[in-house]
Amino acid sequence: MHVSLDGFVAGPNGEMNWIRVDEEMFEYASDRTSHSDTALYGRVTWQMMDAYWPEAGKKPNASKHDIEHSAWYNNVHKVVISRTMQGQQLNNITIISDHIREQITNLKNQPGKDILLLGSPSSFNALVEHNLIDEYWLFINPIFIGNGIPLFKGPREKVQLKLAYNKTLSSGVVCLHYIIQ
After folding, report:
1. What pLDDT score was predicted for residue 145?
2. Pick from 61, 63, 103, 156: CA 20 to 30 A from residue 110's CA?
3. CATH number of the domain bearing residue 140
4. How confident is the model at residue 89 (pLDDT cuts 50, 70, 90)?
């Protein structure tokens, strides 16, 4: 999850043009996606991703990242947390509209690789509320945006974390990997 130094994941209207991305970030992200076989999204983020990634790798000017991430996106099982999509049947997509704790716990107990939550601050906070996140991968961008959508909402229980890995990219983004103690 990308976050500003003052704790926001997007501007007041969902703006993310402040996030620093470059080839080094893409390589780092590619390593994470190679260890996962399920992508978890909220509806808004999934719609944004689904509007771009299925065809991104086929464009004439597609970058290495576009080609690789498009292939991953097209093959990965997608889970979308959404009340408004309840009952929809989509190819290679599971819709979770209720009983989030039970359904995500069931998903986590299935064999396979990691499950990645990509973006989706509302879904992130729902998972945090139910203690369903095992590892936090935060990309701290060196910017204050002043206001917007905060990473964490509402009061939280105390959760002890252990820093498993950190890396500072040449862009100044600090990648932090925390695990639950």
Report:
1. 97
2. 156
3. 3.40.430.10
4. confident
